[in-house]
Amino acid sequence: xxxxxxxxxxxxxxxxxxxxxxxxxxxxxxxxxxxxxxxxxxxxxxxxxxxxxxxxxxxxxxxxxxxxxxxxxxxxxxxxxxxxxxxxxxxxxxxxxxxxxxxxxxxxxxxxxxxxxxxxxxxxxxxxxxxxxxxxxxxxxxxxxxxxxxxxxxxxxxxxxxxxxxxxxxxxxxxxxxxxxxxxxxxxxxxxxxxxxxxxxxxxxxxxxxxxxxxxxxxxxxxxxxxxxxxxxxxxxxxxxxxxxxxxxxxxxxxxxxxxxx
Length: 262
Prior knowledge:
By secondary structure, the chain is α/β, with parallel strands linked by helices. 40% of the residues lie in helices and 17% in strands. The protein has an eight-stranded mixed beta sheet with strand order 1-2-4-3-5-6-7-8, sandwiched between helices.
């Protein structure tokens, strides 16, 4: 475990693989920490330099007062990658992590040569929806909404397994302030115009049962970028890397090969 002080926040991050390996950066969803990617990492090609981190207000990173701006989350990521000397990575972002990916690619294309936008969109939800969620979290914490979150995150078969408890525990143990802060960042983000101007290889991934970013919403964003590819993982919700790690890792591996990253 390592901590990087950006000057504004302290980010918990982890690097696995050889220092000279092709860099792949993973950014996780609202309410999860860097362990989100644990199920797929053993299934990826050997020799990659895999970089994961907890965004501000999540996991073991520091938790400044809410609200947060998307620009701050993008800036945190930019500073971390500069600190690690990363250039030309493949950036894999899920949900809010995919929004960070879009913003970072717009700002610093030297850092990213290709990206995977998983279960995300250029704009997610409405300001009113997010304002209601922020108020609920600030008033009562995450626990009262945890079961509803699980319904959006996972298809019914996975929700019937004991493993569901791991992910429910993860979300309720995130700082309420961090969850509210990142919710505010999503609320204020509309990347339709800048994302449509991007020109780099992109793979979009959606879950057929995703209650947070339905496949049509994901597809709409992916189709903004010429030459992009789009895949749906069946019987998966918002976190297909957890429900179907083999299929998810196979899609990532195929994409890494197609862009010459492995």
